[in-house]
Specification:
Radius of gyration: 29 Å
Strand content: 25-35%
Order of helices and strands: HHEEEHEHEEEEEEEEEEEEEEEEEEHHH
Distance between the termini: 63 Å
Helix content: 10-25%
């Protein structure tokens, strides 16, 4: 049926032309978007692009692959034998990681390899001609110790799964390659600052009363590996303390505990069970050139009660003294099993005026405090330890500092009814001049983004709604964060 064939072909041609037209329209739209790409489209903290992520990767991050700062590790000469290419972008910005491996076969893996078309270069051999490559885009956290341990720190950590999101600002798991096996002293300490001078003891043994690195083994006595590197612990010999037995983990950015809670995490174990009064302090501090100013601290004695406090006398050496001690409660049994560590956490929530201490995830102490002199700015984590017995060393496996994210909100949504309209401006004016209820989120009422909540915000919002004036700055019109504001945000249901 020639007539039917012609009609069918005509219909198919019409569908094809329609699809081509749609593709051309999408292509034109994409060109317009790329032309409008500008630096202002990036959130200053995380580098989130407020649009097509693929376009951002292609047009903004793509050229960074040619960045001379990219460093390629092909062997362990760079401190990492994983063969990874990393871009040393500024802290807390997006990062490109590339990797290339030539996989080898393991006994019993021939069938799985054959599924992917991988065969040994010689029958029965393990070497292959296959190459595994990948390139992934991720947020880059601070990594002061890059040159020392070759680590990259993932900046977003979800603890527990599907739980609250935190930003990982600094972490040192003490994986090292350049460590002398006899003395435990590394080629470099990286970002760590020690209160004592680590020098070999008699007969080139580890230091007598100072920190050194000890190769870590699991419960079965096998050497532990992390990130393709030798896992160590930072060890303090028995009998050390109390003056110079501390170390600092600096933060590349000053954190404000008044805007979001700061959490310090330490993994620790003892050499002997029921040690004679060994003691540990976890200190969130503001460190300047001369002194360490405690902001919040936890004081934990093995088998004794746990104490916490805020503020304190400036510290040059030794533990924190003075300040406001909250309460002594409970106790944390610290592990003395090789390869098994007790995870201690100190959480400072400046907005809620609360200090919390956890042991292996369980709350040991949580108490509030009143007036606090100064702010909650923190730029370092200090660990101070004292071993009261000559046979009871103290081992620290990992230290890290996290900060939660401020409450998300939408600027201009003042009465929190889920709709942005004239009622929001009326709600703000009613609060300012008639004593009506305050906004559920004061940060959202700062419509013009000047850091204040006043009549100018109501005027700005009404001008946007009815006069076509500029819209409120980010976060708008969808949920987002504002790390710069000092205005509180007690609640914002639409973004929870």
């Amino acid at each position: 049926n020639a007539t039917g064939d012609r009609e069918r072909v005509a219909d198919e041609l019409h569908v094809a032309e329609s699809r081509i037209s749609d593709l051309e329209a999408k292509q034109a739209g994409l060109r317009r978007e790329i032309a409008g790409l500008k630096e202002g489209d990036l959130d200053p903290l995380f580098g989130w692009y407020q649009g097509d992520m693929a376009k951002y990767v292609r047009d903004v991050l793509g050229p960074k692959l040619e960045d001379p700062a990219l460093t390629i590790f092909e062997t362990d000469e760079g401190g990492n034998f994983c063969g990874t290419t990393r871009s040393l972008l500024p802290p807390a910005f997006l990062m490109i990681e590339q990797a290339e491996f030539r996989p080898t076969l393991v006994p019993g893996g021939e069938q799985a390899a054959a599924y992917w078309g991988i065969e040994p270069t010689e029958p029965g051999g393990t070497e292959t001609e296959a190459v595994l490559r990948w390139c992934r885009i991720m947020l880059k956290g601070d990594d002061d110790t890059f040159e020392d341990d070759g680590m990259w720190n993932p900046p977003i950590d979800v603890l527990p799964p599907e739980g609250p999101v935190e930003n990982l600002w600094s972490r040192d798991p003490f994986v090292r390659e350049g460590v002398d096996g006899a003395t435990g002293l590394p080629d470099t300490w990286g970002a760590l600052r020690l209160g004592c001078v680590s020098e070999p003891g008699p007969d080139n043994t580890p230091p007598e009363l100072c920190w050194y690195f000890l190769r870590e083994f699991d419960e079965q006595g096998m050497p532990m590996i992390e990130d393709c590197q030798a896992d160590h612990v930072l060890a303090l010999p028995g009998g050390s303390g109390p003056d110079d037995s501390w170390f600092d983990l600096p933060l590349a950015h000053e954190l404000d505990g008044g805007k979001a809670a700061i959490r310090a995490e330490v993994e620790v174990r003892l050499q002997e069970p029921d040690g004679p009064g060994s003691r540990l302090q976890i200190i969130l501090a503001a460190v300047d050139a001369q002194e360490t100013h405690p902001v919040a601290w936890a004081d934990i004695a093995d088998g004794g009660q746990v104490n916490a406090g805020v503020n304190g006398d400036p510290v040059i050496a030794g533990p924190v003294t003075g300040g406001t001690s909250l309460a002594q409660k409970g106790f944390v049994p610290i592990s003395s099993t090789e390869g098994v560590y007790t995870r201690l956490e100190l959480i400072l929530d400046g907005a809620a005026r609360r200090i919390t201490i956890k042991g292996d995830g369980d709350v040991i102490l949580s108490d509030s405090f009143d007036a606090f002199p100064g702010g909650f700015e923190v730029n370092a984590l200090r660990i101070w330890a004292e071993s009261a017995g000559p046979s009871n060393g103290i081992y620290v496996n990992e230290v890290a500092v996290y900060q939660g994210l401020p409450r998300a909100f939408v600027r201009g949504e003042i009465n929190c009814d889920g709709v942005m309209d004239i009622s929001d401006a009326i709600a703000l004016l009613g609060h300012l001049f008639l004593g009506d209820v305050p906004p559920c989120c004061r940060a959202a009422s700062d419509v013009n983004g000047d850091g204040r909540s006043d009549i100018s915000d109501a005027v700005s919002f009404l001008s946007f709604l009815f006069l076509g004036q500029s819209p409120p700055p980010l976060p708008f019109p969808s949920c987002g964060l504002d790390w710069e504001t000092d205005l509180d945000c007690a609640d914002f249901p639409a973004c929870s």
